[in-house]
Every structure is written in C-alpha cells, then in structure tokens.
Amino acid sequence: MARQWIRKCSLIVGDSGGNGLELSEFRIRFEVCKYPMQTPGFARIRIYNLSDDTANRIQKEFTKIVLKAGYEDESDFGVIFTGNVKQWRKGRENPVDTYLDVMAADGDQAYNYAVVNKTLAAGHTHKDTLQAISEAFKKYGVTLGHVADLGQTVFPRSRPMFGMARDYLRVLARSTGTFWTIQDEKIQIVKTNEALPGKAFVLNSDTGLIGMPEQTMGGIIARCLLNPNIRINGQVKIDQKSVQQALRGPTIEDGAKAPQLPGIAADGMYKVMYETFIGDTRGPPWYCDLVLQSMNPADNPIPAPLTNGLTNEP
C-alpha cells in the first residue's frame, strides 16, 4: 500500500505544437468533474500570482492543459485531466494575491465538431462503424481507449454515414448494450453492467476513505483522499457495513409508490459513475468525491442517469 502523503501536483499549459509551460511551483486550486455520459468533463483551475508578462503570454499562446495530481509516491501520481482551454480570466482575490483562472473541457471540440462522411460497404460490422467514427474524432485529438466487445453482427447492406460523430456513436452504443464517454481525450466504451478491466481499488480508512459512504437517491456517495488511480467506469470495493443506509422522510409512502433507492452491494463491489477531484496545493482540500453504483444489476432500479448515458438524446 502506498503512503498518501507529501502532495504532488503538475500543471502544464501548452499549444498544439508541443510547446508549453510547467506551473507546478505556483499555488494552484482546481476542481475537475468527470461523467460517465457523453457530456464532456471539465476543469476549473486557478493559478496564483503569475507575473503580468507570463499571464499575458499564457492567454495568447496556449490552448491545452494537462493536470496531474497525487503524491510523491509515483504509483499514486498521475493525470487527472487533459483538455482544451475554453476561457482564461485574470483577477485579484485580495490586495496582495492575483490569479489567472482557466476553464477547460475534455474532448469538447471533437464532441461539438467531429463529422462522419463515409459509406460502409455491405458486410460491415459494428467495429467498422466505430472505426469511421474514430477517424472523425481523431481529427480533433480524441482517440480510442478501452472498447468493450461490440459483437459479431454482420450487416448485409451498405450504409451511408453523414452527420455528427457523437450521434452515430450513440446509436452504436444503443445497438451493442454499451455506453460511451470521453475521458482524458480517449473514447471509452463500456458494457452497461460492466466496468473497466482491472482489479478493484479497495477503499477503506487505510487507503484514504474519509467518513462513511452514504446511500442516496443518486447513488452511493463517498469521499476519499485524492487518488488518480480511481477512474470513471473503474471498480472500487467498500465494505457494505461501512455504507450508511438512506433515511426516508415521513411523507414518503410505503409500498409500490415509494421511490426505489440504488442498492447497497452485498459484496461491496461498485462502479465509479461520477467523480470530482478537488485540490489546493497550499490549502486543506485534496479529495475525490465519488458517486458509485453497485455492480449487481438487481441493485439498480433506475436505469438513468446512473446506468445508461444513452438516454440523453441530442
């Protein structure tokens, strides 16, 4: 088990040509939000006390950011956000401290502008469809990451494709029982009731769990120390005895009309559905806020928004 102490943070701002600046020596505050649905994740980052020349140069020249965070132990340090700059903002927090804010989004240019214009020949498969979609996304810097099994269906007729790549990806996901998302400029396609491959991260007080996870209408919520190894669609394991059961209000009806809560997993296995990284290199915050869903489909009575981003039509 790694020791989660001595924080480490790296913020690189750069351009499309590979030029950039490392700003980790400055005070940095950040909030990174990641989702399992098609909506691009985003980051809000505040950099303190840059010189005017440096701040002006950053605003004029740089359009991409890479944020890494964790601890001195390299196994607990890694990328938590990569994306395109949407807005810079200069300001003053008090008479002494100035700041430069950046709002960035993950893969939003591909999401908003990638267009498929191709005809697939008779005998094509779902993999061929994905390849055509991937080629459109790649023009905007988004490549394929993990792709679940899409099946062996062979289509007897040719298929003309012209339109937004994201729309074709939604149709593909619906047809194959998967859902997709963009994470750190890579497309993830995961089966609805499965997670990314790999061993589940055991989350307890020894590995950074803070307080007691709680059952809510939106899922099982938990807070832990910031850890880049916990990823969207990845698995975590929490002792089911540690999860606090939801308390229904006195006005909630019993029986069939009562709203169904996401279940507490008997085996403690959960999939990460939403994730927020919160950090301050000169302050107390250094957390992951998680929304989790049981890996057992029977525990999940509500298919959206927790289990199926495909219901979010354009």
Automatic annotation (TrEMBL):
Pfam family, one: E217_GP41
InterPro entries: E217_GP41
Family matches, as NCBIfam families: orf58_phage_fam
Protein name: Phage protein
Source organism of the structure: Camelimonas fluminis
